[in-house]
Write a structure and sequence with these properties.
It catalyses: L-cysteinyl-[protein] + hexadecanoyl-CoA = S-hexadecanoyl-L-cysteinyl-[protein] + CoA. Its EC number is 2.3.1.225. Residues 141-301 form the Palmitoyltransferase DHHC domain. GO terms for molecular function: protein-cysteine S-palmitoyltransferase activity. The chain crosses the membrane at residues 61-88, 100-120, 185-202, 267-289. The termini are far apart. This protein has 372 residues and is mainly α. The strands form four sheets. Strands 1-2 form a two-stranded antiparallel sheet. Strands 3-4 form a two-stranded antiparallel sheet. A two-stranded antiparallel ribbon has the order 5-6. A hairpin with a 6-residue loop joins β1 (141-142) and β2 (149-150). The protein has helices at 2-14, 19-34, 43-64, 66-95, 98-124, 183-203, 205-221, 233-237, 257-293, 297-312, 325-333, 340-343; strands at residues 141-142, 149-150, 155-157, 162-164, 169-171, 176-178, 230-231, 249-250. It is extended. α4 (66-95) runs antiparallel to α5 (98-124) and α4 packs across α9.
């Protein structure tokens, strides 16, 4: 491209072209120059430009299907809760001791309240936006899309079409950005939903195995002649008592639609909760690591690039927003005294985070300011 422009410039110098040809030629040169905006253009800028249509399509799909994702979260969670009440709770009341019954009822209802509270707060709480008008708040750059000053840790969300304070990412499952004011709600929702799914997966493992074996057994029995005596089938589907059955032949009990739905519901619940506990558990651990380091998902990439860039110069990059591992957790959860570890983490709490998301001088000196 540079050679082409140089040749065109040389031709213009050698032969004085008429004015009628010079103007179209200048316009063609301007078009060629518009393909690259300055000498700092590199492969990353070209790659981002090529992927811009893909980003545009993802933004449109995420924006339009946001409510669908929210509906899926509510529907799937409600289905698991319904199965727990309709199928599991009667079995717990019939088979467990009073101590275990109290444990399952208390833990189950506590985890349901924590999941519902934090999901509602994460979806309904605005993440925080920079001021639109001119203020005295220090800023680090100007957003090229919003044309407003961007404070530290703020980034533009293409789906929300605005800048977000301490933006972590746009979550389609919340239909909302995760930012300064709802980051704690998002992480707590992921944490307690993971604990709830692990609880259902571990406690329902034996029921899942029994239900799967029962369905598989009756699938084979349907092809055989009805009325053939079988051994121990009542125990297999859980409708006959265990006393006096072993070693005796009993006639095949009827496998009703209610039994079939019961077993399929157990299988559905176990597969769903096991899958979610693994996938969401990995995401929760990743965000826990980011919180420990005092950075967001976006800042993780920025800090990684800065670390590599300064390493080439023999320097060490230090995150300016990290106050130490323990203090990062205190700032994130808003812990100010020892009782807050219980009331603000393991109980529903609507307290606001530290600061306004515009400045980050929470600890002037990076030492433990809260001995809790």
């Amino acid at each position: 491209m540079h050679l082409l422009l140089r040749c065109m410039r040389g031709c213009c110098r050698r032969s004085r072209m008429p004015r009628s040809l010079r103007r179209p030629l200048s316009y063609i040169k301007l078009i060629f120059k518009s393909l690259y905006f300055n000498s700092l253009t590199n492969s990353e800028v070209v790659f981002d430009s090529m992927l811009e249509p893909v980003f545009w399509m993802v933004e449109i799909v995420t924006r339009w299907f946001g409510m669908v994702f929210v509906f899926l979260v509510v529907a799937l969670t409600s289905s698991v809760i319904f199965i727990a009440y309709y199928c599991l709770l009667p079995l717990v009341l019939q088979t467990y001791s009073p101590g275990w019954i109290m444990w399952h009822i208390c833990y189950g209802h506590w985890i349901i309240v924590m999941i519902a509270f934090h999901y509602y707060k994460a979806t309904s709480t605005p993440p925080g936006y920079p001021p639109k008008m001119k203020t005295d708040v220090p800023f680090v750059s100007v957003c090229k899309k919003c044309i407003i000053p961007k404070p530290a840790r703020s980034h533009h969300c293409g789906i929300c079409k605005t800048c977000i304070l301490k933006m972590d990412h746009h979550c389609p499952w919340l239909n909302n950005c995760v930012g300064h004011y709802n980051h704690r709600y998002f992480f707590s929702f992921c944490l307690f939903l993971t604990l709830g799914c692990m609880y259902c997966s571990i406690s329902g493992r034996n029921l899942f195995i029994d239900a799967y074996n029962a369905i598989d057994h009756f699938r084979h029995m349907e092809a055989e002649k009805q009325g053939v005596p079988v051994t121990g089938i009542g125990l297999l589907i859980g409708i006959a008592p265990s006393e006096g059955v072993a070693g005796k032949e009993v006639s095949q009990p009827p496998y009703t639609n209610k039994d079939r739905m019961f077993h399929k519901s157990i299988i559905y619940m176990w597969v769903l909760t096991s899958t979610v506990s693994v996938a969401l558990g990995a995401l929760t651990l990743w965000h826990a690591l980011l919180i420990t380091r005092g950075e967001t998902s976006i800042e993780r990439h920025i800090n990684h690039k800065e670390t590599k860039r300064l390493a080439k110069r023999g320097k060490v990059y230090r995150n300016p927003f990290s106050y130490g591992k323990l203090n990062n957790w205190k700032v994130f959860f808003g812990v100010e005294k020892r009782s807050h570890w219980l009331t603000r983490i393991f109980l529903p709490s609507g307290h606001t985070p530290y600061g306004d998301g515009l400045t980050w001088d929470i600890y002037p000196l990076k030492k433990d300011m809260m001995p809790v």
